[in-house]
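Reagents: none. Just compute today. Acetyl-coenzyme A carboxylase carboxyl transferase subunit alpha.
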Amino acid sequence: MAPPERKSILLSFEKPLVELEARITQIRELAEENDVDVSAQLRQLEARATHLRQEIFSNLTPAQRLQVARHPRRPSTLDYIQAITDDWLELHGDRGSGKDDPALVGGVARLEGRPVVILGHQKGRDTKDNVVRNFGMASPGGYRKAMRLMRHADRFSMPIITFIDTPGAYPGYEAEEMGQGEAIAYNLREMFGLTVPIVCTIIGEGGSGGALGIGVGDRLMMFEHSVYTVASPEACAAILWKDAGRSGEAAEALKITSWDLKQLGILDELLPEPVGGAHANPIQAADILKQALVEQITELSQLAPATLQQLRYQKYRQIGVFAEAA
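Predicted 3D structure written out:
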């Protein structure tokens, strides 16, 4: 995974930090040109930059976290697969439509020597790649491919890992004609019956049914600056107030952040990100993810298949259950 190109992609709330970093670079260059020792001043400025970065990213609003989750340089499914696994072999096609959906990738690999099946949404890095990947919005064939690979995992007793990063399932006419809703609903039902461990991780944007189509698992993990929502804040604002410009208000009300979902009991594990977001240090983010996956799969693999199914069922039956005070 290549380091991010910070100069070309700047989030609005990062501006004070970037200006300070540019000042540090300018002072360093001038000092070298004039052979002046300003190491003490540079250390002070670098310490201030580190503090400012921590302050900014520890106090993000839900709308700002959404910006981080959508960052074009944020590590993708294929980035993480490359960083944390060995012997990756991508598999294609749903064995039904005769097509392959590049918005949802899957295959087999080894994680710390253990064979696993990995599935995930795949966004593009630029406009051309995003068009090919359909911005990570999978078609019915993508979800049917996912289920084909999950059945393969179940048949050969391989744990399933899913990486969720999509604004939602593709809402186009062709997708509806091919049974988009049925494909997602079918996956929801069938994933409850699988007998192998399933660990789902939201690595970026978890949107609507498109996320749920590969999101039923024994454990749900989520990166710190990722989001998980029934509808995008822009869509929610347009529906409720006929004004997409109120998306920040909607993001606050929807409770889309990892902290919100942890408090609501939906999230099992919150994964910390490097300061500045996963795109600031992809290798460190991959190490954090790998360690968490290995721990979860090791723990779940000790359970009997029937126990896995029962606990998975109970986990989702408890979501949304609450008691009113008298």
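Residues 2-7 have pLDDT under 50 and may be disordered.
Action item: order primers for follow-up constructs.
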